[in-house]
Amino acid sequence: MPGLTNERAKMLEALLFASGESVPIAKLADALGCDIPLTRILLGDMADTYEKENAGIQLREVGDCYRLCTNPGYYPAIAKLLKAKPRKVLSQTLLEILAIIAFKQPVTRTIIENIRGVNCDHGVNKLMEYGLVEERGRVMDIPGRPILLGTTEEFLLFYGLKNVEELVGTPEAEA
What we know:
Layout: H1 7-19, E1 23-24, H2 25-32, H3 36-52, E2 57-62, E3 65-70, H4 75-82, H5 92-104, H6 109-116, H7 121-129, E4 133-138, E5 147-151, H8 153-158, H9 171-174
Antiparallel strand pairs: 1-3, 2-3, 4-5
Helix pairs in contact: 1-3, 2-3, 5-7
């Protein structure tokens, strides 16, 4: 990357590229042999460089982890090259279920069904298949120990969020 002149910045880019997934900042700092504040500065410079140059990749922050992602503006060319199927469009039903899970998480299927007034099994299963929702444990003090559902890192990446606190109207965001 032309804008990355510092040797550590180049090493950071190589680490993120090689990992292929989100990497905690502490691991990145350790691999670089520097402290977390300096690593944050390097990551910020890298993100700025990619943005200024409208690069084919972007640096995305999710929680306290970072990963390289393709620039969504180039998705049609990538899809053509890889002969990828078009992204699944979420139906209104799936969007409603996903919104309930996102804003109420962790939440059980029963709570989702009480809010929507209809069965949600198929919708929850589809969202899990798409990697947007995952199991977050079980409610131990309720008979049947129902599964708790929450959103995934893929959900945050899909909607361009760093964490669920960025959702407007969540209790965490209002605190």
